[in-house]
């Protein structure tokens, strides 16, 4: 089995989740089985995964696994389903909760709900002496999933994840440290198959146990279980401590070193452990040849390097009728990105301000959610450029859209001025839609997806003026523009389903190839 | 059916529990269905019932009832054979006979505690965190099943307890939270009891619910409250045929002259505050009945036997002259008087021995008695035989020559009846209330004035040295005891409860 390991899969996704979803489509299309593994507890998980098109059979959440609650009879809870053990209660309804009172008007519980049918999310339970003693959390599928017990000082001191029979499956304990403050001091697992009880110091240790269980459950002498770690902190340490052999892959979703220097001394903190323990893994996967090359040069790993782009251009898109440049809105540049500091979209706006002086028809549409960091600093910086240059009619903050085809089929250009990337799905999508890209020379992705002078232009990192000049040059030369666009369409083939799938096949076949040796080594050790 | 209501059956029971247990046995022996009903959570209940000599089918304990474990048979669960301990991952190391440690990579992750008085049977299983805190504890029943599980507050005190049925499903939840300034059990909730949850603010509220459940199924219930801390609960019970309170002690704080004393706090519910909620009051003697009537002219007070015996037994002479003291070693029983009496007896009968059987209420009380033995030079003449179960007391009584009673007051005197059933004559102070009924001076023993230590010693010496006198008194003691057999006492009970 191949496992794609993440901590979360929420409604609001970041690049890692999008990458996993694309990959899942690819595996579905090729009818190769896989499991999306989500480590963290999330009572709304199944809503998010179903919306994202992941069926329950392909999903394993660690808590649900231990709770034996991967598949449950779905009976969302409503207020009338709850029994507070007190006769003749009456309710007072507020915006998102009911207050439950006894006949003497003593508060018995607060029942928090969501949605139009007022599905119960959690209940805050009080004893007869007005103490909040427990909060029960309900899964969206209806069962009580987590009970949080409170101390007399109103702090959670024990958390209990229950199985569907209402018995403890996983417990988390909080005890005072030397400073008197509560800290997590242990996790306890009651094995769902045999009732044996295990103590763990940290969630990382518990995660190892979980990965071991998966390894046992899906064990095969023919094929190793392949663990693809997409979010490092979940299992980068744990995967090195499995009981039995497996094939481990660390997926680099971002540049491994800071800024533009692949040899920079301080590396990306998300990958610091992975890179220092590199040979503990069987393989490293990255989206670009360039990053693999840099990793190779810097670390000389024994772990194998695979280039498997996170982005996939669908066959359907590749076969769509190409739209010539002259049928597009002249001068329209678009970008799909979160309005976030690392995207440096204010620099893109500044470049457009320069272009506008020579090509007044230029426009820039920014599609994406605004990042709230520092009170929406990134968006405020873009807005300042607009105001300072009086570009209210030229640069538009359009917000998030999923109508990529519609937007990109009308635009000419795609711009990118980020400071660091792991791939950048946006610029790949743009290329596949025949847009001509202008990008900073930025690792990793943009400077590989865009081939300078072939399907667009790469300008030195941080050089706003060069960016503007390259854009002007393209806009002033219709023939060049069309040539770049045709090459953009052509170059998308690199990210076709077939090509990306070949990357996965290479990885899986390497896993199979080394498996007999691994089993033999394991038996020898034992 | 008959229901005798109490808090518990203890490892060390007092006269109240003995009396109640004995009555339960007698009723059932005489074909009248009766239960020893108890409230407290006691994982050792079935052991304690066995010690008390009461068959568990006559016990109705509240937790046992809700846990659905009435009549569960004992299965010995060894700490080395716990299914929940993964022995391929953890190592169990025996530290001493009381506990073993569960270790992972050399670090303790739990502890297996051994049931006292057993070799390696499971009492509880603790899980421990890296700081050594107990984070969860399973409490096992003496019968070898997991009975409840505890979590703990940050200060290490119990935070919550879940009680399980035999199948391991939760049936009661209990929480410890703030009640005023204290942290104490603030809630008990029955889980899925016949399809519903029920929340209670106190253990007695739950107990009331439990009794209601029992009596719902029995329209002819006759209830006797034996532990008066529970009188308020019994008073609240409706729909039973009769409710009585049995006084196992003297009802006022004046031992010499109870009529002139003040009603003890513990009896106030029954006698002063809620007498209308009871059918009446039962006492062991006519004298106490009359005293109560003087206090409470309207009260319905009846006399019913405090104890009964299954039969009389043959006496067997021992190697040494043996004097016995049977009862709690509390100040009100004045065991120190027995020691002084003994110091006078040994002057005449140097090889005489005094055996005291009973538990001391505190360690200090016991140490003081030891000191007194030293001071009196009685080391070779006094044996603390400790608490004995009912069945073990037979060996104590069988070869005793005299039983002493030095209490300041006794509502009856179960120990005297038991001793007499083995032909053991009594020497007692003249105290209220039972003495008058049980001992006739110069017939089945001797009655001396209260605190008449020298007189008591003289009577003891006489019995030990005058074989003929002893034989007469022993015979009379047997005769007296035979008045208290089950078959006779059940008649008195029927009369009292009419």
From TrEMBL, chain B:
The protein's superkingdom reads: Bacteria
InterPro entries this protein is in?
Glyco_trans_1
GO MF assignments: glycosyltransferase activity
Pfam families hit by this protein: Glycos_transf_1
Can you say what this protein is called? Uncharacterized protein
């Amino acid at each position: 089995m191949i496992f794609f390991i993440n901590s979360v899969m929420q409604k609001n996704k970041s690049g890692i989740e999008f990458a996993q979803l694309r990959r899942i489509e690819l595996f579905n299309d090729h009818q190769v089985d896989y499991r999306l593994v989500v480590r963290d507890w999330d009572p709304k998980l199944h809503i998010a995964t179903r919306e994202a098109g992941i069926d329950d059979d392909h999903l394993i959440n660690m808590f649900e696994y231990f709770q034996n609650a991967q598949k449950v009879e779905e009976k969302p809870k409503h207020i009338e389903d709850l029994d507070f053990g007190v006769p003749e209660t009456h309710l007072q309804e507020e915006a998102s909760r009911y207050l439950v009172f006894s006949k003497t008007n003593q508060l018995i519980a607060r029942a928090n709900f969501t949605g139009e049918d007022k599905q119960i999310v959690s209940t805050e339970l009080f004893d007869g002496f007005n103490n909040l003693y427990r909060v029960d959390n309900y899964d969206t599928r209806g069962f009580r999933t987590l009970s949080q017990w409170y101390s007399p000082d109103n702090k959670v001191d024990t958390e209990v994840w229950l199985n569907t029979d209402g018995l403890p499956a996983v417990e988390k304990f909080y005890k005072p440290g030397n400073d008197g403050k509560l800290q997590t001091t242990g996790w306890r697992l009651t094995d769902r198959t045999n009732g044996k009880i295990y103590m763990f110091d940290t969630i990382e240790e518990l995660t190892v146990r979980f990965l071991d269980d998966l390894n046992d459950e899906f064990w095969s002498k023919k094929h190793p279980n392949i663990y693809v770690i997409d979010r490092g902190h979940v299992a980068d340490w744990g995967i090195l401590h499995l009981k039995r052999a497996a094939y481990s892959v660390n997926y680099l979703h971002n540049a491994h070193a800071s800024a533009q220097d692949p040899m920079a001394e301080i590396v990306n903190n998300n990958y610091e452990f992975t890179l220092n323990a590199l040979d503990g893994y069987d393989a490293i996967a990255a989206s670009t040849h360039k990053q693999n090359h840099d990793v190779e040069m810097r670390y000389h790993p024994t772990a194998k390097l695979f280039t498997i782009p996170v982005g996939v251009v669908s066959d359907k898109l590749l076969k769509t009728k190409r739209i010539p440049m002259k049928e597009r809105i002249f001068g329209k540049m678009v970008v799909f990105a979160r309005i976030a500091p690392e995207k440096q979209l204010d620099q893109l706006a500044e470049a457009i301000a320069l272009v506008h002086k020579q090509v007044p028809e230029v426009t820039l549409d920014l599609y994406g959610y605004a990042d709230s960091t520092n009170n929406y600093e990134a968006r405020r910086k873009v807005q300042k450029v607009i105001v300072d240059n009086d570009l209210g009619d030229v640069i538009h903050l359009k917000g998030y859209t999923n109508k990529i085809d519609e937007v990109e089929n009308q635009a000419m250009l795609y711009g990118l001025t980020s400071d660091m990337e792991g791939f950048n799905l946006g610029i790949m999508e743009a290329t596949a839609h025949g847009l001509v890209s202008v990008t900073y020379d930025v690792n990793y992705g943009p400077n590989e997806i865009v081939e300078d002078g072939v399907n667009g232009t790469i300008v030195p990192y941080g050089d706003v003026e060069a960016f503007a000049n390259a854009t002007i040059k393209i806009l002033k030369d219709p023939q060049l523009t069309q040539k770049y666009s045709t090459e953009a369409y052509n170059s998308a083939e690199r990210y076709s389903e077939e090509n990306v799938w070949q990357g996965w096949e290479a990885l899986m076949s390497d896993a199979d190839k080394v498996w007999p040796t691994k089993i033999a080594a394991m038996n020898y050790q034992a | 059916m008959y229901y005798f209501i109490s808090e518990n059956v203890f490892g060390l029971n007092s006269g109240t529990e003995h009396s109640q247990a004995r009555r339960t046995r007698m009723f059932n022996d005489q074909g009248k269905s009766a239960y020893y009903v108890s409230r407290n959570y006691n994982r050792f209940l079935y052991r304690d019932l066995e010690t008390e000599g009461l068959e568990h089918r006559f016990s109705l304990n509240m937790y046992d009832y809700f846990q659905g474990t009435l009549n569960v048979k004992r299965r010995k669960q060894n700490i080395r054979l716990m299914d929940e301990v993964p022995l391929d991952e953890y190592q169990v190391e025996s530290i001493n006979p009381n506990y073993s440690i569960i270790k992972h990579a050399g670090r303790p992750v739990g502890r297996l505690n051994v049931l006292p008085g057993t070799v390696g049977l499971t009492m509880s299983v603790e899980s421990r965190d890296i700081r050594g805190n107990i984070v969860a504890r399973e409490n096992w029943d003496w019968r070898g099943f997991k009975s409840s599980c505890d979590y703990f507050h940050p200060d290490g005190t119990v935070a919550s307890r879940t009680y399980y049925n035999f199948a391991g499903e939760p049936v009661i939840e209990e929480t410890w939270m703030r009640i005023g300034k204290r942290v104490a059990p603030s809630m008990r909730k029955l889980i899925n009891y016949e399809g519903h949850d029920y929340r209670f603010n106190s253990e007695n509220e739950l107990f009331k619910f439990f009794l209601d459940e029992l009596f719902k199924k029995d329209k002819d219930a006759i209830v006797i409250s034996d532990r008066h801390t529970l009188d308020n609960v019994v008073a609240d019970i409706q729909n039973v045929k009769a409710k009585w309170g049995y006084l196992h002690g003297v009802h006022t704080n004046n031992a010499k002259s109870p009529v002139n004393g003040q009603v003890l706090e513990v009896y106030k519910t029954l006698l002063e505050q809620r007498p209308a909620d009871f059918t009446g009051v039962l006492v062991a003697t006519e004298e106490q009945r009359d005293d109560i009537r003087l206090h409470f002219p309207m009260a319905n007070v009846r006399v019913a036997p405090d104890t009964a015996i299954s039969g009389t037994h043959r006496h067997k002479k021992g190697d040494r002259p043996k004097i016995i003291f049977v009862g709690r070693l509390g100040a009100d029983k004045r065991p120190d008087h027995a020691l002084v009496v003994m110091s006078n007896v040994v002057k005449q009968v140097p090889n005489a021995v005094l055996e005291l059987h009973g538990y001391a209420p505190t360690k200090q009380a016991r140490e003081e008695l030891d000191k007194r033995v030293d001071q009196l030079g009685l080391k070779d003449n006094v044996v603390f035989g400790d608490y004995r179960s009912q069945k073990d007391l037979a060996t104590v009584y069988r070869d005793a020559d005299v039983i002493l009673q030095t209490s300041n007051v006794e509502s009856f005197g179960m120990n005297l009846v038991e001793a007499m059933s083995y032909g053991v004559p009594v020497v007692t102070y003249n105290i209220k209330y039972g003495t008058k009924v049980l001992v006739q001076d110069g017939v089945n023993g001797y009655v001396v004035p209260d605190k008449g230590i020298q007189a008591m010693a003289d009577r003891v010496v006489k019995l030990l040295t005058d074989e003929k006198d002893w034989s007469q008194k022993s015979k009379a003691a047997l005769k007296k005891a035979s008045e208290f057999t089950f078959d006779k006492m059940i008649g008195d009970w029927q009369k009292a409860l009419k």
